[in-house]
Structures are given as structure tokens and as C-alpha cells.
Amino acid sequence: MTQANHQVDAPTVAGWLAADDRCDTDRGDAVTVVDVRTPAEFESAHIRGSYNVPLRLLGEHAGQLRDRLGHRVVLVCQSGVRADEARKRLTAVGMDGLHVLDGGVPAYAAAGGDVVYGRQRWSIERQVRLVAGLLVLLGTLTSLVVPWMLALAVFVGAGLTFAGLTDNCMMGRLLARLPYNRGDEPSAEKVLDRLPSNRAA
What we know:
Blueprint lengths: L6 E2 L1 H13 L9 E4 L3 H6 E3 L3 E2 L2 H6 L1 H7 L4 E4 L4 H12 L5 E4 L2 H7 L4 E3 L6 H19 L7 H17 L3 H7 L2 H4 L5 H7 L7
Parallel strand pairs: 1-6, 2-4, 2-5, 5-6
Antiparallel strand pairs: 3-7
């Protein structure tokens, strides 16, 4: 499958990070890996040396991130969808040198990359599949007694179709706001302070 210009595969990212480890990591072209998943997902598994900037905070502070980060940034999530949304938001404020890890953290782990594991939690994508499936099942079964409940299954199906066409999943956004997924979400100031300063400055 042909990759878009901004997409990069896991072995390539692993090679970049390995090269940085062998060289001076303060040089201007060093790679910064930004994980845009929720803090809970990040705690479950993340690329060693990556920085967690949840998509919600990234969208609200895109300009500050542009000024803070260097010019080689790899955005990662669970599959690549949220990372690509982050890329669009950062591109909109004039940031370049952005890459999206194709296949997300699971692909990086499968390629033998260095992944740090912690408390295991379900990814947002998996939660969406579970909730959507349960709602469709509920709507279908209860429609045998209450016919209008079939509308629930239709509504969920329409929502999933919209998400597939636009890469914008409202159910995923709602689930990401649950305390289970937010974990101990730090303030925007703490998130920004943890990031490396602009290496190209």
C-alpha cells in the first residue's frame, strides 16, 4: 500500500531514534516523538523517549507547540488516525517537518522498537468497537419488542460511516473524556515544560 508523503513506517522511525542515540541528541535535526493519545493509553504502552501531548491539549496549544518543538517531529497514536489529525492542526499553524507513524505504537512494537509497558488499558479504538457493537446489538434485539429502538442501531451505523469517511469519530472523542481514559492528565503548562526546547533555534 502506498504511503502518503507525511507517513513513515515503524522501521524507519526506529532507525532515526537509534541514530539519535548514537549521536549528539541536541543537534538540530534530532527527532522528537509526540504521542497524542490519552494519558491512560500512554501509560499502557509508549515509545521510549516519546512525549505525551493529548490531542485535546495539542489542538488548544498548537501555536505554543510549534514554537517549542524542533523541525523533525513524529506524531504517534494507536493507529495513525489521531496522529494525522494532530498533523493537520499543527500544519494549520505553520509547522513543517511533521511525520505520522503508520500503524501507531502497535506497529512500532511489532517492528521490534523499544516500547515501555505499564498498566494495561484498552485503546480508544477498541472501546469504540465495543460500545458501538453493544449499542447495535441492544437496538436490534429490543426492536423486536419496541420497533422504534431499531433507530438506535441505524444511528450508530450512520455515526460509524461518518467516522470512516471523515476520520472524525465523535464516540471516540466522548470516550477519551472519561476519567478512565484521561488518567492523571497534567496541565498544559506541565505538558509543554516536559517537551524539549526548539533544537533548531
